[in-house]
Amino acid sequence: MARSIVIDVYECNGCGSCEEICPEAFVMDDGEKAALVDSEAEVTDKVEEAAAYCPQKCIFFE
């Protein structure tokens, strides 16, 4: 079963590290919070790297 990417936008501080590391999966939305480019995005090594570098640890997988 594929894991899905979850972003806790309440914890996101809008630093943009996820978008910088993995722009194919993450973008900063109008509220300056992290969002997914595609809600069906796959968990790749780059997505995992972005989650690991997130200072708020608000990116996780289900």
Q: How would you describe this structure to a colleague?
A:
The protein is an alpha+beta fold and 62 residues long. The protein has a single domain, classed as Alpha-Beta Plaits, CATH 3.30.70. The protein is built from two helices and four strands, in the order E-H-E-E-H-E. The strands form two sheets. Strands 1-4 form a two-stranded antiparallel ribbon. It has a two-stranded antiparallel sheet with strand order 2-3. A hairpin with a 5-residue loop joins strand 2 and strand 3. The longest helix is centred in the C-terminal third of the chain and has 9 residues, at 45-53. It starts with a strand and ends with a strand. The model has no long low-confidence stretch (mean pLDDT 95).
